[in-house]
Amino acid sequence: MKQKTCFVLFCVISSINVAISVESFPVSSRRHNGRDNLKLFVFGDSYVDTGNWPKTYGGSWHEPYGITFPGSPSGRFSDGRVLTDYIAGILGTKSPITYLGWKSGEKKSVRYGMNFAYGGTGVFNTFVNQPNMTTQIDYFQQYVQQKKIPLNSSSIAILSVAGNDYATYFTSNHTLKELPDLTKSIVEQLVSNAKRIHELGVKKIGITAMQPIGCLPQFTVSTSYQNCSDSGNSVAEFHNQVLVESIRKLNNETDTALFVILDLYKAFSSVLNLQKNISADSPFSDSNIHVMVYREFNGGDFA
User: What angle do CA 69, 35, 97 make, to 5 degrees?
Assistant: First the structure.
Protein backbone atom coordinates (compact mmCIF):
# COMPACT_ATOMS: atom_id res chain seq x y z
CA MET A 1 0.00 0.00 0.00
CA LYS A 2 2.80 2.42 0.90
CA GLN A 3 4.55 1.74 -2.40
CA LYS A 4 1.35 2.45 -4.34
CA THR A 5 0.73 5.62 -2.34
CA CYS A 6 4.24 6.88 -3.02
CA PHE A 7 3.81 6.16 -6.74
CA VAL A 8 0.59 8.19 -6.86
CA LEU A 9 2.20 11.10 -5.04
CA PHE A 10 5.17 10.97 -7.41
CA CYS A 11 2.87 11.11 -10.42
CA VAL A 12 0.91 14.06 -9.01
CA ILE A 13 4.09 16.03 -8.39
CA SER A 14 5.42 15.06 -11.83
CA SER A 15 2.24 16.46 -13.40
CA ILE A 16 2.58 19.68 -11.41
CA ASN A 17 6.21 19.92 -12.43
CA VAL A 18 5.15 19.74 -16.09
CA ALA A 19 2.42 22.29 -15.45
CA ILE A 20 4.87 24.85 -14.15
CA SER A 21 8.02 24.13 -16.08
CA VAL A 22 7.25 22.08 -19.17
CA GLU A 23 9.95 23.99 -21.08
CA SER A 24 12.14 24.89 -18.10
CA PHE A 25 15.86 25.30 -18.23
CA PRO A 26 18.19 23.91 -15.55
CA VAL A 27 17.84 25.29 -12.03
CA SER A 28 21.50 26.25 -11.96
CA SER A 29 21.10 28.55 -14.96
CA ARG A 30 17.94 30.09 -13.53
CA ARG A 31 19.82 31.03 -10.38
CA HIS A 32 22.31 32.99 -12.44
CA ASN A 33 19.91 34.87 -14.69
CA GLY A 34 19.13 37.68 -12.26
CA ARG A 35 16.35 35.89 -10.38
CA ASP A 36 18.34 34.43 -7.51
CA ASN A 37 16.40 36.93 -5.36
CA LEU A 38 13.01 35.49 -6.31
CA LYS A 39 10.65 35.63 -3.35
CA LEU A 40 7.73 33.27 -2.87
CA PHE A 41 4.74 34.22 -0.70
CA VAL A 42 2.27 31.48 0.14
CA PHE A 43 -1.32 31.71 1.38
CA GLY A 44 -3.80 28.91 1.92
CA ASP A 45 -4.34 25.51 3.48
CA SER A 46 -2.58 22.19 4.14
CA TYR A 47 -1.57 21.74 0.51
CA VAL A 48 0.96 24.52 0.98
CA ASP A 49 1.39 24.89 4.77
CA THR A 50 5.00 24.09 5.71
CA GLY A 51 4.62 24.46 9.47
CA ASN A 52 2.42 27.31 10.71
CA TRP A 53 0.31 25.32 13.16
CA PRO A 54 1.63 25.77 16.73
CA LYS A 55 3.53 22.74 17.96
CA THR A 56 1.45 22.66 21.13
CA TYR A 57 -1.69 21.42 19.42
CA GLY A 58 -0.90 20.82 15.76
CA GLY A 59 -1.32 17.18 14.72
CA SER A 60 1.08 17.84 11.86
CA TRP A 61 3.90 17.97 14.40
CA HIS A 62 3.54 14.27 15.18
CA GLU A 63 4.46 11.12 13.25
CA PRO A 64 3.80 9.77 10.69
CA TYR A 65 4.00 13.31 9.29
CA GLY A 66 7.49 14.17 8.10
CA ILE A 67 8.98 10.68 8.13
CA THR A 68 9.97 10.87 4.44
CA PHE A 69 11.00 14.53 4.51
CA PRO A 70 12.71 16.05 6.40
CA GLY A 71 12.91 12.88 8.51
CA SER A 72 10.77 14.03 11.42
CA PRO A 73 7.51 16.00 11.78
CA SER A 74 7.96 19.54 10.42
CA GLY A 75 4.42 20.89 10.59
CA ARG A 76 3.60 19.76 7.07
CA PHE A 77 0.39 17.75 6.69
CA SER A 78 2.29 15.14 4.72
CA ASP A 79 4.87 12.43 5.26
CA GLY A 80 7.14 14.49 3.00
CA ARG A 81 7.19 17.62 0.89
CA VAL A 82 4.07 19.62 0.03
CA LEU A 83 3.16 21.70 -3.02
CA THR A 84 5.08 24.74 -1.77
CA ASP A 85 8.33 22.79 -1.63
CA TYR A 86 7.97 21.51 -5.17
CA ILE A 87 6.95 24.85 -6.65
CA ALA A 88 9.90 26.52 -4.95
CA GLY A 89 12.26 23.89 -6.36
CA ILE A 90 10.82 24.18 -9.85
CA LEU A 91 11.28 27.94 -9.74
CA GLY A 92 14.88 27.53 -8.62
CA THR A 93 14.49 28.88 -5.10
CA LYS A 94 13.92 27.50 -1.60
CA SER A 95 10.76 27.07 0.45
CA PRO A 96 10.26 30.32 2.35
CA ILE A 97 10.26 30.58 6.11
CA THR A 98 6.92 30.15 7.84
CA TYR A 99 5.14 33.12 9.34
CA LEU A 100 5.02 31.33 12.70
CA GLY A 101 8.71 30.47 12.57
CA TRP A 102 9.86 33.97 11.73
CA LYS A 103 7.49 35.52 14.27
CA SER A 104 8.81 33.23 17.01
CA GLY A 105 12.39 34.24 16.30
CA GLU A 106 13.56 31.42 14.06
CA LYS A 107 16.95 32.43 12.75
CA LYS A 108 16.17 32.39 9.05
CA SER A 109 15.88 35.31 6.69
CA VAL A 110 13.00 36.37 4.47
CA ARG A 111 15.28 36.17 1.47
CA TYR A 112 13.06 33.52 -0.11
CA GLY A 113 9.76 35.05 0.96
CA MET A 114 7.33 33.87 3.62
CA ASN A 115 4.63 31.21 4.04
CA PHE A 116 1.39 32.33 5.73
CA ALA A 117 -0.69 29.20 5.03
CA TYR A 118 -2.48 27.25 7.75
CA GLY A 119 -3.76 23.72 7.22
CA GLY A 120 -7.53 23.39 7.45
CA THR A 121 -8.29 27.01 6.63
CA GLY A 122 -10.24 28.49 3.76
CA VAL A 123 -11.22 31.66 1.99
CA PHE A 124 -13.70 32.12 4.84
CA ASN A 125 -13.76 30.65 8.35
CA THR A 126 -13.80 26.86 8.48
CA PHE A 127 -13.95 24.15 11.13
CA VAL A 128 -10.47 25.02 12.49
CA ASN A 129 -9.63 28.01 14.62
CA GLN A 130 -6.78 29.27 12.49
CA PRO A 131 -6.35 32.39 10.31
CA ASN A 132 -8.40 32.35 7.11
CA MET A 133 -6.92 33.77 3.92
CA THR A 134 -8.01 37.35 4.62
CA THR A 135 -6.23 37.26 7.98
CA GLN A 136 -3.16 35.67 6.39
CA ILE A 137 -3.02 38.57 3.95
CA ASP A 138 -3.46 40.99 6.86
CA TYR A 139 -0.25 39.56 8.37
CA PHE A 140 1.49 39.97 5.02
CA GLN A 141 0.30 43.55 4.61
CA GLN A 142 1.46 44.47 8.08
CA TYR A 143 4.97 43.19 7.39
CA VAL A 144 5.12 44.88 3.99
CA GLN A 145 4.05 48.21 5.46
CA GLN A 146 6.58 47.81 8.27
CA LYS A 147 9.20 47.04 5.60
CA LYS A 148 10.01 43.72 7.27
CA ILE A 149 9.38 41.99 3.96
CA PRO A 150 11.17 43.65 1.03
CA LEU A 151 9.40 42.93 -2.26
CA ASN A 152 11.00 43.00 -5.69
CA SER A 153 10.08 42.55 -9.34
CA SER A 154 10.49 38.77 -9.04
CA SER A 155 8.02 38.34 -6.18
CA ILE A 156 5.47 35.55 -6.69
CA ALA A 157 2.46 34.54 -4.60
CA ILE A 158 0.68 31.18 -4.44
CA LEU A 159 -2.95 30.93 -3.28
CA SER A 160 -4.14 27.41 -2.47
CA VAL A 161 -7.51 27.32 -0.79
CA ALA A 162 -11.24 26.55 -1.09
CA GLY A 163 -11.56 22.83 -0.38
CA ASN A 164 -12.11 23.40 3.32
CA ASP A 165 -14.77 26.01 2.57
CA TYR A 166 -16.80 23.37 0.76
CA ALA A 167 -16.11 20.76 3.45
CA THR A 168 -17.39 23.15 6.11
CA TYR A 169 -20.42 23.96 3.97
CA PHE A 170 -21.47 20.34 3.49
CA THR A 171 -20.87 19.35 7.12
CA SER A 172 -23.23 22.16 8.12
CA ASN A 173 -26.22 20.44 6.46
CA HIS A 174 -26.37 22.69 3.42
CA THR A 175 -27.75 21.44 0.13
CA LEU A 176 -26.55 21.42 -3.48
CA LYS A 177 -29.28 23.93 -4.32
CA GLU A 178 -27.36 26.63 -2.46
CA LEU A 179 -24.01 25.65 -3.99
CA PRO A 180 -23.88 28.19 -6.86
CA ASP A 181 -24.16 31.08 -4.44
CA LEU A 182 -21.40 29.62 -2.28
CA THR A 183 -19.10 29.14 -5.26
CA LYS A 184 -19.75 32.70 -6.41
CA SER A 185 -18.88 34.03 -2.96
CA ILE A 186 -15.71 31.94 -2.70
CA VAL A 187 -14.41 32.89 -6.14
CA GLU A 188 -15.26 36.58 -5.70
CA GLN A 189 -13.32 36.63 -2.45
CA LEU A 190 -10.42 34.75 -4.04
CA VAL A 191 -10.24 37.32 -6.82
CA SER A 192 -10.40 40.14 -4.29
CA ASN A 193 -7.58 38.51 -2.32
CA ALA A 194 -5.43 38.12 -5.42
CA LYS A 195 -5.94 41.75 -6.41
CA ARG A 196 -5.08 42.88 -2.90
CA ILE A 197 -1.81 40.91 -2.86
CA HIS A 198 -0.90 42.34 -6.25
CA GLU A 199 -1.63 45.88 -5.07
CA LEU A 200 0.75 45.28 -2.15
CA GLY A 201 3.55 44.72 -4.65
CA VAL A 202 3.57 41.08 -5.76
CA LYS A 203 3.99 40.91 -9.52
CA LYS A 204 2.76 37.40 -10.32
CA ILE A 205 0.07 35.39 -8.55
CA GLY A 206 -0.81 31.73 -9.03
CA ILE A 207 -4.14 30.35 -7.82
CA THR A 208 -4.73 26.62 -7.57
CA ALA A 209 -7.74 25.03 -9.19
CA MET A 210 -9.62 22.67 -6.91
CA GLN A 211 -8.56 19.05 -7.02
CA PRO A 212 -11.16 16.32 -7.84
CA ILE A 213 -12.56 16.19 -4.33
CA GLY A 214 -14.86 13.32 -5.30
CA CYS A 215 -11.76 11.12 -5.22
CA LEU A 216 -10.90 11.91 -1.61
CA PRO A 217 -11.23 8.99 0.83
CA GLN A 218 -14.41 10.30 2.46
CA PHE A 219 -16.14 10.23 -0.93
CA THR A 220 -14.80 6.85 -2.06
CA VAL A 221 -15.20 4.80 1.13
CA SER A 222 -18.65 3.59 0.06
CA THR A 223 -17.07 1.81 -2.95
CA SER A 224 -14.10 0.45 -0.97
CA TYR A 225 -12.02 3.29 -2.43
CA GLN A 226 -12.46 1.98 -5.97
CA ASN A 227 -14.56 4.74 -7.57
CA CYS A 228 -14.66 8.50 -7.30
CA SER A 229 -17.87 10.37 -6.61
CA ASP A 230 -19.20 12.11 -9.72
CA SER A 231 -21.20 14.56 -7.62
CA GLY A 232 -18.13 15.44 -5.57
CA ASN A 233 -16.06 16.02 -8.69
CA SER A 234 -18.83 18.10 -10.25
CA VAL A 235 -18.50 20.52 -7.33
CA ALA A 236 -14.80 20.94 -8.10
CA GLU A 237 -15.40 21.28 -11.84
CA PHE A 238 -18.03 23.95 -11.34
CA HIS A 239 -15.75 25.86 -8.96
CA ASN A 240 -12.90 25.67 -11.47
CA GLN A 241 -15.03 26.87 -14.37
CA VAL A 242 -16.17 29.90 -12.40
CA LEU A 243 -12.60 30.53 -11.30
CA VAL A 244 -11.21 30.34 -14.84
CA GLU A 245 -13.76 32.82 -16.13
CA SER A 246 -13.11 35.20 -13.24
CA ILE A 247 -9.34 35.08 -13.67
CA ARG A 248 -9.67 35.56 -17.42
CA LYS A 249 -11.80 38.64 -16.80
CA LEU A 250 -9.31 39.92 -14.24
CA ASN A 251 -6.41 39.54 -16.65
CA ASN A 252 -8.37 41.33 -19.36
CA GLU A 253 -8.41 44.35 -17.09
CA THR A 254 -4.60 44.48 -17.17
CA ASP A 255 -2.00 44.72 -19.91
CA THR A 256 -0.46 41.35 -19.09
CA ALA A 257 -1.59 38.07 -17.53
CA LEU A 258 -0.65 38.73 -13.94
CA PHE A 259 -2.83 35.96 -12.53
CA VAL A 260 -2.48 32.32 -13.54
CA ILE A 261 -4.11 29.05 -12.53
CA LEU A 262 -2.21 26.00 -11.32
CA ASP A 263 -4.34 23.14 -12.55
CA LEU A 264 -4.40 20.65 -9.68
CA TYR A 265 -7.56 19.10 -11.09
CA LYS A 266 -5.78 17.99 -14.21
CA ALA A 267 -2.68 16.90 -12.29
CA PHE A 268 -4.70 14.65 -10.00
CA SER A 269 -6.95 13.47 -12.81
CA SER A 270 -3.99 12.36 -14.93
CA VAL A 271 -2.79 10.26 -12.03
CA LEU A 272 -6.22 8.80 -11.34
CA ASN A 273 -6.94 8.19 -15.03
CA LEU A 274 -9.93 10.49 -15.04
CA GLN A 275 -9.27 12.33 -18.27
CA LYS A 276 -12.29 10.65 -19.87
CA ASN A 277 -14.49 12.46 -17.34
CA ILE A 278 -13.24 15.88 -18.40
CA SER A 279 -15.51 17.34 -21.06
CA ALA A 280 -13.95 18.38 -24.35
CA ASP A 281 -14.95 21.99 -23.84
CA SER A 282 -13.59 22.17 -20.29
CA PRO A 283 -10.96 24.89 -19.85
CA PHE A 284 -8.87 22.25 -18.12
CA SER A 285 -8.72 20.01 -21.19
CA ASP A 286 -6.31 22.42 -22.86
CA SER A 287 -2.71 21.47 -22.19
CA ASN A 288 -1.69 24.97 -23.25
CA ILE A 289 -2.61 26.18 -19.78
CA HIS A 290 0.37 24.19 -18.52
CA VAL A 291 2.68 26.03 -20.89
CA MET A 292 1.09 29.31 -19.84
CA VAL A 293 1.88 28.74 -16.17
CA TYR A 294 5.52 28.08 -16.98
CA ARG A 295 5.81 31.13 -19.19
CA GLU A 296 4.15 33.42 -16.66
CA PHE A 297 6.12 32.19 -13.67
CA ASN A 298 9.43 31.28 -15.20
CA GLY A 299 9.81 32.74 -18.63
CA GLY A 300 7.72 35.87 -18.48
CA ASP A 301 8.63 39.46 -17.86
CA PHE A 302 8.70 40.34 -14.18
CA ALA A 303 9.35 44.02 -14.76
Answer: 35
Contacts of 166 (CB under 8 A, 6+ apart): 182, 186, 210, 213, 235, 239
Residue 95's nearest CA partner among 61, 35, 50 is: 50
Residue 104 within any structural domain of the chain: yes
Short-list 163, 180, 151, CA closest to 47: 163
| CATH number of the domain encompassing residue 247 | 3.40.50.1110
Q: What is the pLDDT along the chain (303 residues), one digit of tens a residue?
A: 333 333 444 444 554 554 454 333 233 334 434 445 899 999 999 999 999 999 988 789 999 999 999 999 999 999 999 999 999 998 889 999 999 999 888 878 899 999 999 999 999 999 999 999 999 999 999 999 999 998 988 999 999 989 999 999 988 877 778 899 999 999 999 999 999 999 999 989 999 999 999 988 888 888 888 888 998 999 999 999 999 999 999 999 876 778 999 999 988 888 776 444 554 445 444 443 344 344 445 544 333
10, part of any domain? no
In one letter, which amino acid is 160?
A: S
**CA Rg, the chain, in Å?**
18
Specify the number of domains making up the chain.
Answer: 1
Question: Cis before residue 64, ω within 30 degrees of 0?
Answer: yes
54 in any annotated domain: no
Residues present in the chain in total: 303
Closest by CA position to 133, among listed 192, 87, 184: 192
Identify the domain containing residue 232 by its residue range: 39-48+81-277
- Residue 29 counted as domain residue: no
